[in-house]
Amino acid sequence: MTSSDPTSPPAAVRQVDSASASVLTDLTARFEDLQTVLKCCERLVSELAVKDREPDDVQVEAVWTVALLSYARSFAVGKAGAETVLSEEDLTAALSNTEVLDWHKVLLQLRDHYADPVVNPREQFSVGVAQDASGGPGGVAITSARQPLVDDLTVRQTGAIAFALSGLVNDRIAAQQEKVFAELQHISKEDLDQMPPIDVTQAEAPPATGSPPES
Questions:
Q1: Which DSSP state fits 125?
Q2: Does residue 160 lie within any of the structural domains?
Q3: Do residues 69 and 115 lie in contact, with contact meaning Cβ atoms separated by under 8 Å?
C-alpha cells in the first residue's frame, strides 16, 4: 500500500472508482493468476517426482488445468480494457528464450484442450464390433486411448515463464500504485468520507514474487 506513512495502519480504507484504479485492479488480478501458476507448477513437480508410486492422475490433471486457466487469463482483456493485457512482446522482454513464444502458443492450445466443454481431455473412446470365431458379429467392444499426463519439462518451463512475467507485472503494479496515489493526493477529507469503505483492517500490496520450480 502506498501512503505518506507506510508504517502506520490506515484509519480507514475507501474504495477508489477511477480508470487508473481499474488498471491497478486488473494488474493485481493478473499477478495473482501468475502466482497461482507458480504454486501449481511447484505442486506438480513434487507429484511427478514421486518414486514409489504412479502420480495421482486426478490431482495432476486438476492442478495442471488450474495452471493453464490461470496462465491464459493473464493474456485476456480484463475489466480495464486492453491496457493491462500481457502480450507476446512482454514474453520476449521478460524471458530471453528464443522458444518462449512457441511454449506460450502450446500452453494456450493446452488450455483449450483441457477446458473444452464437450471433448474429454483424458481419454479417447471408440466403439467397435467384436467378431466371433466364424467371422460374424459377436458383440460390441468399447476401446479407449489414455492421454499422457503432463511431463516434468513442460511444468518447469511453464513455471519459468510465469515467474518472469510475475516480475514484470509486479513492477507495473508498483508504478500504477504511485500513479493512483498521485491522483488522490489533493482529495479533501470530506470527499474521502463520501467514498464507500472497504472492510479490511489494512490494505496490502501484492506479495513478493515466488520462485520457479527448481531445476
A1: E
A2: yes
A3: yes
Task: Answer whether 84's CB lies under 8 Å from 174's CB.
Answer: no
User: Which residue segment(s) compose the domain that 42 sits in?
Assistant: 19-121+150-194
The partner residues of 146 in beta bridges, in order of sequence, read: 123
Cell numbers that stand for 61 in this block: 490433471
Burial class (CB in 10 A: 0-12, 13-18, 19+), 41: buried
d(CA 94, CA 80): 22
> How does pLDDT run across 105-143, given as a tens digit for each residue?
999 999 999 999 898 888 888 999 998 888 899 899 998
CA distances from 78 to 27, 73, 172 (A): 9, 9, 15
Asked whether residue 215 is domain-assigned, the answer is no
Assess if residue 201 is contained within a domain.
no
How many domains does one find in the chain? 1
* pLDDT value at 71 more than 70: yes
Q: Identify whether 203 is part of a domain.
A: no
The confidence score (pLDDT) of residue 6 equals 56
Cβ-Cβ contacts under 8 Å for 112 (sequence gap 6 or more)? none
